[in-house]
Design goal:
- The structure is a homodimer of 298-residue chains.
- Chain A has a six-stranded mixed beta sheet with strand order 3-2-1-4-8-7, sandwiched between helices. Chain A has a six-stranded mixed beta sheet with strand order 6-13-12-11-14-15, sandwiched between helices.
- Chain A folds into two domains: 146 residues, 2-keto-3-deoxy-galactonokinase, substrate binding domain (Nucleotidyltransferase, domain 5); 116 residues, Nucleotidyltransferase, domain 5, CATH 3.30.420.
- By secondary structure, the first copy, chain A, is an alpha/beta fold.
- Chain A is globular.
- The first copy, chain A, is built from ten helices and 15 strands.
- In chain A, α3 crosses α10, α4 runs antiparallel to α8 and α5 packs across α8.
- Chains A and B meet through β10, β13, α4, α6 and α7 of A and β10, β13, α4, α6 and α7 of B.
């Protein structure tokens, strides 16, 4: 085991991952169940940090994600796209905790057709994925509560778009009539595929507001088992997201996600005729290492 | 005042309206704050009915809406579109309460491109609106939690579509990050209009999942006041609904709704280049009278 050189934290709204990183960027130890910023009481981020990395050596620290938002430890103003590693390094926000320097990675902002968009944390994972694959371009998908699709050229995150797919799915399932007929069961691949295929028939934004209701009527009319309704709804939303996001994409899509979520998107991409590849684990740590090294922190 | 001839109830999921109806179909008295079926404990619908119409004479009764659903008093199986008054009469479900006959109006079902759709209660309001206007056709919009758009020709409800606009709006506002930056205020016509106009730029279902996020980023970037964000989101969804629903519509749209909701949709229709007219109040009672008379109940 090489000597540890850096501590990196990917500190989001609902979860935190901490990495002890070696001289070559490799992960030597990790904490995967740290509390998201919303679960840190009274903003006691220093104490939460100390608990997570207890026993790790005193090393330079770099934090990415919502920890750098207005609701986090300190606001790290967005860097604007197109943004390369150097632009992110130039926008690092420094704080001190217990006599140790901490760098907060800025989120990125961009503008698409008059709509501002923002990300926090995903930029670090993307830079890490590029680092691991020794690439300087590609299309990256980071699915989840807020799916991010980013285009990278020449090592530079050129632009990106957010799709609220995961959060919309949760709100519809838990807080509308669509959840009423659903019953939990094993993932239903057929229900999911039917949802993805149905998404291809939608030719407008409003058509989605109509088609969502099929999640109820298929249940009412016994055309889908109650254990498949949740997957149908998921397929409908994921399919709609992919159809829009891939409109001008030729490259294969690189997915940065947990295995379960990556599997879901891989299947949907396949159904819609797109190739995809899965990024290795620990892209976040690789991104921390890349940014910290470029900033001269380690 | 003419003699009362009929009692009609429009008994939905969250509210109930009861009408005491005269010989010409006019409303002689009304109760507007009855409990929806979900608020009637242990399904004690008879007792709830007795409370609502206490003091009214013993007359034939006709009930429309979710009271005829599986979760209601007794399930009244759907009549299938195209459906005229006679088809609805033929599908009335009869029950008895305290020695008095009650007719339950069936909901309607239809099929659009492989997707089943259903309504309960709106068919009665539509038939009532036709009755009052002495028309036998038109396009009817009943906005709300689940907006219904119905096409009527020759006195026959030919087909309809449901848009989950209202319920999606509520779920997004109350149960996603989009509500976080919103502040309650007077209705913001400019925010609403910006949402409606933004909806016209969306060329796919997935584009909506992206554009929703503008409700957050406009707030983050101070491009809309926090009191306008809720109206922006509303305009985005209402505009998307209208754009899809009016794809093949030439007629002016007749809106059956409360004044506040009707105003919102009238404004959005105008912004999108469509004419609309407002149906008179009490379409529900007129529908009850029309169906009951055709059934020989009064």
């Amino acid at each position: 085991m090489s000597n540890p050189h850096l501590i990196g934290l990917d500190w989001g709204t609902t979860a935190c991952r901490a990495y002890l990183i070696g001289a070559g960027g490799e992960v030597l130890a990790r904490v995967t169940d740290g509390p998201g910023i919303l679960r840190v009481e009274s903003g006691a981020f220093g104490a939460a940090l100390d608990t997570m990395i207890a026993g790790w050596p005193a090393l330079p620290m770099i934090l990415s994600g919502m920890i750098g938002s207005r609701q986090g430890w300190k606001e790290a103003p967005y860097a604007h796209c197109p943004a390369a590693t150097g632009d992110i390094v130039a926008a690092l926000t420094r704080i001190e905790h217990a006599g140790r320097a901490i760098a907060l990675v800025p989120g990125l902002s961009c503008e698409n057709g008059g709509m501002p968009d923002v990300m926090r944390g995903e930029e670090t994972q993307i830079l890490g994925a590029l680092e691991i694959a020794k690439q300087d371009g590609g299309v990256f998908l980071l699915p989840g509560t807020h799916s991010k699709w980013a285009g990278v050229t020449g090592g530079c995150i050129a632009s990106f778009r957010t799709f609220m797919t995961g959060e919309v799915f949760g709100a519809l399932k838990d807080h509308t009539i669509l959840g009423r007929l659903m019953r939990e069961g094993a993932p239903d691949a057929d229900g999911f595929a039917r949802g993805v295929r149905a998404s291809t028939t939608l030719t407008s934004a409003g058509a989605l507001l109509n088609r969502l209701f099929a999640t109820r009527t298929y249940g009412l009319m016994n055309r889908l088992p109650d254990t498949a309704l949740s997957d149908y709804l998921s397929g409908l939303l994921v399919g709609a997201e992919i159809a829009e996001a891939t409109k001008q994409i030729e490259n294969p899509v690189t997915i940065i996600a947990s295995p379960a979520l990556a599997h879901r998107y891989t299947e949907a991409l396949k159904l819609l005729g797109h190739e995809s590849a899965l990024a290795p684990a620990d892209c976040g740590a690789a991104g921390h290492w890349r940014i910290a090294r470029a900033a001269g922190l380690c």
